Amino acid sequence: MRIDVLTIFPDYFRGPFDVSLLGRARRGGPLDLHVHDLRAYTSDRHRTVDDLPYGGGAGMVMKPEPFFEAVETLFGSVPARPRTVLFTPRGRRLDQRLVADLAGEPLLLLCGRYEGIDERVHAGLATDELSVGDYVLAGGEAAACILVEAVTRLLPGALGNIDSAAEESFTEGLLEYPQYTRPATYRGMAVPDVLLSGDHGAVARWRRERALEHTRRTRPDLFAAWRARSDLDDGS
Ligand code: ADE
To answer: Which atom of ligand 1 is nearest to the CA of 134?
Structure first.
C-alpha cells in the first residue's frame, strides 16, 4: 500500500514511521510510505505557507498554492490522484469501519497547521475530510500517524499473528475482553480461575460476557448499536 504525506514538518514523523510495526512494514513489508515537505512547493524566498485570514480573526491560515502545486507535481491531474485525506476537526470521525475502507488503496494525507487550511484546498483537492476525535490538535500530523498505523496493521503481512487483527476491539463493534499473562497472582490480584481451567468453551463465554459488560459500562453508544444489530440478526 502506498501512502504519501504532505506536511510542513517532515521530521515530525521520524520515530513513529521508523520503529515497531510501521518500521517493519516499510522495510520489505507491505507499506510504501513517502513524506513530502510542503515548503518545497512554495515559490517565494521565505517559503511562505501561511497568511492572515480574510475577514480578520486570530491566527494564520495555510495558503492554497503550495498544496495545489505539490499535489499536481507529485500526482498530475485528477484521474491519476490517490484518495486524498485532509485532517481537520471538522471532518468525519475516523472509526474502524472507515480504517478498513481506507486500507489497501493508495492514499495522500494532507496535514494542516495553524488555524486551518484555505477552504479551496478542502474543495479542490480533498476527497475525504477526517477527524480523529472531538478535540483540537495543533495540526494534522498526529492524526496522520493514527491513520497510517491503523490501516497498516490491517495489511496482509504487517502483523505477525493474523488472528490478532480480527479478534480485537471494534471488529465486531464491542470493546475487547481483559487479558492476563503470568504470574497467576500478582500483588494479591489473581487471574480469573476460568482462564486457568483449560475449558475453551468456558473461556470463550467468559470473554464474551466481559466484552459485553465492559462495552455496556464504558461505551453505551457502541453497546446500543451492537444490540440493535443483534436484534436485527435475530429477526431475520
Ligand atoms: N487537526 C486538528 N485537530 C484535529 C482532529 N481532531 N482530527 C484531525 N485533524 C485535526
So the answer is: 6
Residue 192 in grid coordinates: 480469573
Instruction: With CA atoms as reference, report the closest residue to 169 among 223, 103, 233.
Output: 223
CA nearest to 169, candidates 156, 179, 158, 160 = 179
What's the pLDDT tens digit per position in 39-81? 999 999 999 999 999 999 999 999 999 999 999 999 999 999 9
In terms of pTM, does the model score above 0.85?
yes
Q: Distance, CA 116 to ligand 1 centroid (Å)?
A: 10
Q: How far apart are alpha carbons 97 and 116 in whole angstroms?
A: 26
Say how many Å lie between the CA of residue 113 and the centre of ligand 1.
10
* Ligand 1 proximity of 137 Cβ (cutoff 6 Å): yes
What pLDDT does 109 receive? 98
The C-alpha atoms of residue 67 and residue 111 are separated, in whole angstroms, by: 10
Q: Which regions of 94-235 does DSSP assign to beta strands (E)?
A: 107-110, 128-131, 185-186, 189-190
Q: What is the mean pLDDT of residues 152-171?
A: 75
Ligand 1 within 6 A of CB of 90: no
